[in-house]
Amino acid sequence: MEKLYRIIAAVQLLLCALVAGCSSPAFDDAETVSVVIPRSLPEAQTGTWKLVCADSFGDCRETELQALDAALATFARNSPAAILAYPLAADKSPLGQPLGAIYPFSTELDERNGFAASVLCSLYNPADGIYSAEIAENIRHFNWPKFMELCASYDDPWLIQEERIKEAIRKGRFKKTDIKIDVKKD
Question: Per-residue pLDDT tens for 4-63?
Fold first, then answer.
């Protein structure tokens, strides 16, 4: 059955790439990847997931993904993109923290990269609406693999003061010492 899903995902990927490649010059510098919820998670076997993708194209795309299905996502080639997946409750509200990955460094969703991908997603879609060419350039040149590794080294990276991190990345001045733990979070 898993082999069938991989074949279907590959066919979908090929069709999407052909259509995108023929229909729009905007996709010349884009890459389409397949995103799958890891089968090793008990939640992956059943239920619905919300998949959120944000990248330098400037849009945040959300879609629902059924357990064991694959989704296709198109990103600006070699530009950091956040991929988040939230398990959904019956009422469609997110259950817990998301799984995450940051393209092009990984498309394998996991718990360890959920925080780093969430930071990137919120940088592309800031609540204050401030997003400039300078911020985009700082995001592009930021060392995301090192940041993912650093966040994954914490027992609970969700205790890191996210606003402090985002501000440092926006300004292009992030240092390891910018990471502070918020002891007040639950």
Answer: 444 444 334 433 333 333 233 344 688 999 988 887 776 666 788 899 999 887 778 899
Which of 48, 34, 50 minimizes the C-alpha distance to 103?
34
Sign of CA dihedral 176, 169, 114, 101: negative
How far is Cα 52 from Cα 122, in angstroms, rounded to an integer? 11
**Of 110, 112, 98, nearest to 148 (Cα)?**
112
Residue 178 pLDDT > 70: yes
Q: What is residue 154's three-state secondary structure?
A: coil
- d(CA 54, CA 91) in angstroms, rounded, equals 24
Give yes or no for a contact between 176 and 150, defined as CB atoms under 8 angstroms apart.
Answer: yes
Beta bridge partners of 33: 73
CA pseudo-torsion sign 7, 13, 15, 17:
negative
* Cβ contacts of 58 within 8 Å, gap of 6 or more: 124, 131
Go through the chain and tell me how many residues it has.
186
Euclidean distance between CA atoms 186 and 179, whole angstroms: 18
Residue 164 half-sphere exposure, CB side, CA atoms within 13 Å? 12
Higher per-residue confidence, 42 vs 135: 135
Per the DSSP assignment, residues forming a β-bridge with 35 are 71
